[in-house]
Amino acid sequence: MGLLYPDRCKVSHLNVAEASAPSFSKHPILALEHLLAPYSTHERAGLERTAHHRKTGMGYDILQQTKPQTIAYALADSPVALLGWIYEKLHEWTDDYPWTDDEILTWVSIYWHSTAGPAASLRIYYESNHPTTGGLPYDRALSYIPHVKYGVSHFPKDLTVLPNTWAATLGDVILQSRNPHGGHFAAVEHPEVIVRDLQAMLGKGGRAYNYVSASDGAVRARL
After folding, report:
1. CA distance 117 to 104
2. Which candidate, 145, 211, 133, 212, places its Cα nearest to that of 173?
3. What is the helix, strand, coil percentage profile of the chain, to 5?
4. How confident is the model at residue 215 (pLDDT cuts 50, 70, 90)?
């Protein structure tokens, strides 16, 4: 959003970041820090988690990027197939979160009963990697985006858990937090952490406080 609409998306918060190690050609100061400062214990564990996911957990991503309609027929035809497809992610991508039956069935039902159906959720993977004429390639969203302030909350069981210097290459990163627990669905697992970091960014004393003025048409939340 910040890349496409920089006049409207002034501040962005991420609980999963995808980026590469800083290079001297693009980020010399970060690259020097990356070269000289050792990774913390949490950063090393995060890189191991990232490597494990990329080696053993990318099947869904490759399929949805290349042949989304194939799996779409199965998910739209069988609620059991949809349950298996989603529950695998709920189990593997969280930090031992105690899902209840009602929570699981609510997630599945949103896909099953939506007007567009479960197949619609797959298309973004294909479309982001096959941009139409004039569109932006997905890799562009993983590089520096100016004019947007970023906050990144890192959780140990997310799909990609990067060192701070890597995440800092995404833009003007004003906050990074390392959290002891949590996975890909952090807003469900630990909503209080997301709220805490948003308040630290946007509340009084935060580096994004008053960054968006009322004249821009924004409605200021009471943080």
Report:
1. 17
2. 145
3. 50, 10, 40
4. low
Per DSSP, the residues of 47-79 read HHHHHHHHHHS-HHHHHHHH-HHHHHHHHHH-H
The sign one gets for the Cα dihedral 168, 171, 172, 175 is: negative
**Cα 132 to chain centroid, rounded:** 23
User: Per-residue b/e over 153-173, b at no fewer than 16 CB within 10 Å?
Assistant: bbbbbbbbbbbbbbbbbbbeb
Please calculate the CA angle 208-209-215 and round it to the nearest 5 degrees. Answer: 100
Say whether 133 sits in a helix, a strand or coil: coil
SS3 28: helix
**Token pair 């949805």: residue:** 64
> 3-state class of 160 per DSSP?
coil
In the chain, which ranges are E strands? 11-14, 145-154, 171-178
Residues 119 and 81: beta-carbon distance below 8 Å: no
Taking the CA atoms of 73, 119, 51 and 41 in sequence, report the sign of the dihedral they define: negative
Half-sphere exposure of 139 (CA within 13 A, CB side): 1
- What's the pLDDT band for 78 if we cut at 50, 70, 90? very high
Contact predicate 201/175, CB 8 Å? yes
- Bridge partners, 151 (sequence order): 13, 175
Model pTM score: 0.89
pLDDT digits (tens, 9 = 90+) for 114-160: 999 999 999 989 988 887 766 677 777 778 888 899 999 999 999 99
CA separation for the pair 51, 56 (Å, rounded): 9
